[in-house]
Amino acid sequence: KRVGRTSPFDKLSDELVVRILSFLPTNSVCQCARVCGRWYVLAWDPRLWSTITLTSQVHPSVCGRWYVLAWDPRLWSTITLTSEAIHADRAIKQITRLLARDSGGCVHVEKVIFNSCSRLSDRGLQLIGRRCPELRHLEIKGCVNVTNTGIFELVTQCVNLEHLDVTGCQQITCIHLGSVAPEPLHTRQLYLQYLDMTDCFSLEDQGLKVIVKNCPQLLHLYLRRCINITDTGVKHMGSYCLMLREVSVSDCVQVTDFGMYELAKLGPNLRYLSVAKCDQISDAGIKQIARHCYKLRYLNVRGCEAVSDDSMEMVARSCPRLRALDIGKCDVTDNGMKLISEHCPNLKKLSVKSCDMITDRGVQYIAYYCRGLQQLNIQDCQVTIEGYRTVKKYCKRCIIEHTNPGFF
């Protein structure tokens, strides 16, 4: 007599099976729908379709019914294309046409990611703006052919846009409402809360002024390697975006202590600040930041060689909530490490890379007081095996980066 074998999956509840399917890419979930009747129902659970990632070419042409289901707008709240080989403009036109066939617009699309799509142009962005009015999240990292024109049109049409990442889009010099705004431009502002313009080398102070003036609700602003930004641009940030929580002007070599005085006006709202490799910033600017931004959680002054124990004392005493600190290649000594360890016991990440005056003594202070330390970078420091072992002894979960072959 033939005995039926029970699949282990039959013993799991529907909730557990849906949870397991949630870890699979879109194409795999579609394949799971063909296993049996129960899996078909579970595979089309709405909770599995909040994000759509196309890892390979989709073949919705199994049958007429599958073609209809594959282009159901509920499956396309997120569109992701991350390949230089894809003709992005053509793909956008085809996808949005299919999704909008019933409603006239892709109202379910809230997130679009086109990273490294060098063939994406302003025409594609304009099409997204017209057909995806509910867009909230846009990433176009490395899309070098996109210009101000496409961005202007998109932000004008997508009034609910909150997250914009244009990293590496070197032709973008400004962001504001375009000429097709449905109402007078002076009565409208953008609702952007996150803006990343890293490596937008053409951005200048005047363009930054227009951006922050039109985006007063910005919370996160990253301008890494925007080399034309000066203290004037930083002043505009502190004047128009009073709610800023995270700011990065790393490698903006024209920013000085005067810019730090302007950023200090953000007060306790500022939680994250990176001024790495801004070598014109000294103790005076960092002390001003520490004095006013006392809720700071993250501070990166790597490469600011004029930063010393003097400002670290102010940081330690004023910012007890500090969780991450990078003082690599700064003029900080063991005394500065002692102050940090005594006043910031909840420190999780610390980098003292290339700090020539930090020895075992400074590292031991950190180990004794900051028992929850998770990452420590002591590359190119005068730390011996004794200091290394002390950290290992007191900070059980700490990952130590070093260049001393004797530590292995």
Please tell me about this protein's structure.
This is F-box/LRR-repeat protein 7. This protein has 408 residues and is an alpha/beta fold. Helices cover 34% and strands 10% of the residues. The chain has 15 helices and 13 strands. The longest helix is centred in the N-terminal third of the chain and has 12 residues, at 88-99. The radius of gyration is 26 Å and the shape is globular.
Topology:
Blueprint: H1 14-21, H2 26-32, H3 37-43, H4 64-70, E1 78-81, H5 88-99, E2 111-114, H6 122-131, E3 137-139, H7 148-157, E4 163-165, E5 194-196, H8 205-214, E6 220-222, H9 231-240, E7 246-248, H10 257-263, E8 272-274, H11 283-292, E9 298-300, H12 309-318, E10 324-326, H13 334-343, E11 349-351, H14 360-369, E12 375-377, H15 385-394, E13 399-401
Parallel strand pairs: 1-2, 2-3, 3-4, 4-5, 5-6, 6-7, 7-8, 8-9, 9-10, 10-11, 11-12, 12-13
Helix pairs in contact: 5-6, 6-7, 8-9, 9-10, 10-11, 11-12, 12-13, 13-14, 14-15
Domain F-box: 6-52
Pathway: Protein modification; protein ubiquitination
Protein name: F-box/LRR-repeat protein 7
Low-confidence stretches: 49-71, 180-186
Strand content: 5-15%
Shape: globular
Please list the strands of the largest sheet in the order they lie side by side: 1-2-3-4-5-6-7-8-9-10-11-12-13
Identify the notable features of this structure and list them briefly.
13 strands, globular, 13-stranded parallel sheet, 15 helices, 408 residues, alpha/beta, 34% helix
